Amino acid sequence: MTLDPATLAAILAMMAATVFTRLIGALLVSRFTLSPRLERALTAVPPAVLMAVVTPTAIATGPAETIACLVAALAALRLPLLPAAGAGVVTVALLRAAGL
Amino acid sequence: MTSRHFRRELLDGLRAILPLVLAALPIGFVFGTVAAGNGLSPLETVLMSALVFAGGSQFVAMDLWTHPASWSALGFAALLVNLRHILMGASLARSLGLFRRWQTVPALLVMADENWALAEARARRQPLSPAFYLGLALPFYCGWVLASLGGSLFGALLGDVAVYGLDFAFPAVFIVLLMGFWKGADTGRVLAASAVAALTVHSLVPGAWYIAAGALAGLVAALLSPVRQEVAA
């Protein structure tokens, strides 16, 4: 069990960065009164983050991933979270096994 | 809050996060494996997962790793990769009304894409309780730390997780959650802006910048979207 000083410093620097990003948004929101427009815009953040996370997988990875993303999205219209996401995972595994 | 109510909320949270914990285990394991390959000891790997607790920036750090480690480069990279947390925290803060003052800071410190997304989805339907959030965050945090330790110790034994489609579990869950946020044309504009920005940045800039770019583009699109319908383009 070794702990290199430079590695520890890097870990602490990364921790400082993530503590800052995790706290500062909530702090700013609690300190300042938001305009209705900004308040409304903030509700767009969750879908925007999720969309940004999945877009490269959905569009720029391969046909198996693109098809599986569509399957998961369509399944989500009818099924709860777990089976809908499971349908996507099974689809991607089958398509990859088929060589797509 | 009664103890029965607390337990029910806690169990709701556990049930919601469980599939994501299972999906995160192989990813944490891969992180531990990569870290071991970069010369990090099991102690260093666990410290990073426990103190940083941000998969994206931890993988980016492994990409940028040098000997000896550069704290400034790695700290700056972590800051950039996690810029999305600022918007996520600002959004989540508005749902923390049931949290006591001392509970909000630890809640935000263990905010990760997965438990944040589930918390936001819950808050759309009912008030977000600290017990539900604890049920989300605690297993996810422990799972991530333990899986990185596992990877650090036994990483060489793991095959390619892509074979089983497990790497696809996160995009799949995010897509299902995303469908729940749909509220008509306004959402469409936000999603289109986010997708275009994310795809553009993803193809031009290595690393996880594309997430912050998409989040920001979506926010701007929402800010610019007309409040009065007659102004609509």
Automatic annotation (TrEMBL), chain A:
Q: Give the source's domain of life in one word.
A: Bacteria
Positions of transmembrane segments:
6-29, 41-59, 71-95
* Pfam families linked to this entry: AzlD (PF05437)
Q: Which UniProt keywords apply?
A: Membrane, Transmembrane, Transmembrane helix
The protein depicted here goes by the name: AzlD family protein
Which species expresses this protein natively? Rhizobium straminoryzae
UniProtKB/TrEMBL annotation, chain B:
Kindly indicate where the leader peptide sits in this chain: none
InterPro entries in the cross-refs = Brnchd-chn_aa_trnsp_permease
Record flagged with keyword Transmembrane helix? yes
Q: Which family does it belong to?
A: Belongs to the AzlC family.
Q: How does it sit in the membrane?
A: Multi-pass membrane protein
Location(s) in or outside the cell: Cell membrane
Which keywords describe this protein according to UniProt?
Cell membrane, Membrane, Transmembrane, Transmembrane helix, Transport
Q: Which residues cross the membrane?
A: 16-34, 71-93, 131-155, 161-182, 194-224
Q: Does the keyword Membrane apply?
A: yes
Kindly provide the name given to this protein in its UniProt entry. Answer: AzlC family ABC transporter permease
Single GO cellular component term: plasma membrane
GO biological process terms, semicolon-separated: L-valine transmembrane transport
